[in-house]
Amino acid sequence: MLLTSRSHAEYRAMFDLSDADLAGVTLDCAAGASSFAAVASAAGARVLATDPLYAQGADALAARLPDDLVRAQEMHRAAADRFVWDWYGSPARYQEIRVESGTRFLADLRRAPGRYLAAGLPYLPLADRSVDLVLCSHLLFTWAGEHDHAWHRAAVLEMCRVARREVRIFPLVHLGPGEPVEFLGRLRAEVEQVTGARTACPPVPYEFQRGADRMLRIRLHRGQ
Q1: Residue 121 has what DSSP assignment?
Q2: pTM (two decimals)
Q3: Looking at the domain assignment, is residue 3 inside a domain?
């Protein structure tokens, strides 16, 4: 899987985040080389990031990131009609953001390694209700062709386990053609039944992959 490098600004848009949403502790699952934890933490937020790739160490990630950025760029060029460039302005600006985000991530990983946990869904090395908000981008649903309904159920329930307040997941369509994920409705019903949460799929002010303009929002009821 590619080492992706999304920016703080992209996270704010794809998860429709306000400053109030970032009060408390935020967990970024499958964060890759995102600069969200670095930038948000520098602004005073408390953010943790998890990804199994962190076990490779900063030097190994720095070595592979340029090639992964080129591979992602080639993928987007090969299927240009599947993407909307309005949010970025141009493919060139999109690539600039990728490089900037990756650079910030690597600097922060070296400066504050304790912020980055080598772990992957559906198992998180965190206590129950230990964070306030959990974010997860471009893993669940995106890779539904590789991870089945049972895996998604386990992953979502694990995020709900560690969250006190809310879980947000983006996007809600398959990678590539952007087709809806057939088990999304069933999964929402199961999560609501198990956790007592309320789920919704509101639109967000971000669309890059065509049709990927909604997130799954899970609001937990835990008296906190």
Answers
A1: T
A2: 0.95
A3: no
pLDDT at 80: 79
Q: Residue 195 and residue 105: Cα distance in Å, rounded? A: 34
Backbone phi, then psi, for 94, in 5-degree steps?
Answer: -55, -45
User: What domain range is 88 assigned to?
Assistant: 8-219
pLDDT digits (tens, 9 = 90+) for 8-67: 999 999 999 999 999 999 999 999 999 999 999 999 999 999 999 999 999 999 999 999
> For the chain, how many structural domains are there in total?
1
CATH number of the domain where residue 92 is located:
3.40.50.150
Q: At what angle do helices 58-78 and 91-111 cross, to 10 degrees?
A: 170
In terms of Cβ atoms closer than 10 Å to its own Cβ (0-12, 13-18, 19+), residue 86 is exposed
Locate 9 and state its tokens.
Answer: 């600004």
